[in-house]
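Write out this protein's structure.
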Amino acid sequence: MPACLCFVLSARAEHAWTAVLVLLLAGAARVLAEMLLGSGSWESGFSLAPHDRQGQYQGFHGAGTAVARSAGPLLLTALVRGLGTRGRLALAALFLGAGLATGPAVRHAAARGESRSVPGPAVSAPPAPDTA
């Protein structure tokens, strides 16, 4: 959402250097959001899946990317190009709503016992060399 708001502000900047600074800020916000999305999606995609239904869960979870790649360009074009500032603000509200809904949904699934810890690899120390 901060990136969407920065994009709106950049269009209203009076000077080119102000627009460039705002766009750099938008880019940084976007990179941070992508990093948080990647790690959060990975964690929720694996740790919330029941052990006996990993494949089913991953298939459904992965379908979201395909839907986004299919519908995303049309939605973005309609909102950003078609509605201008109002479209960018609507897109920001959509992202905000999805982001705010994710936390409670993950907490609800974890409270129902659907989460599981993904065990890491067992680490053991090598045997000490025999010095005798």
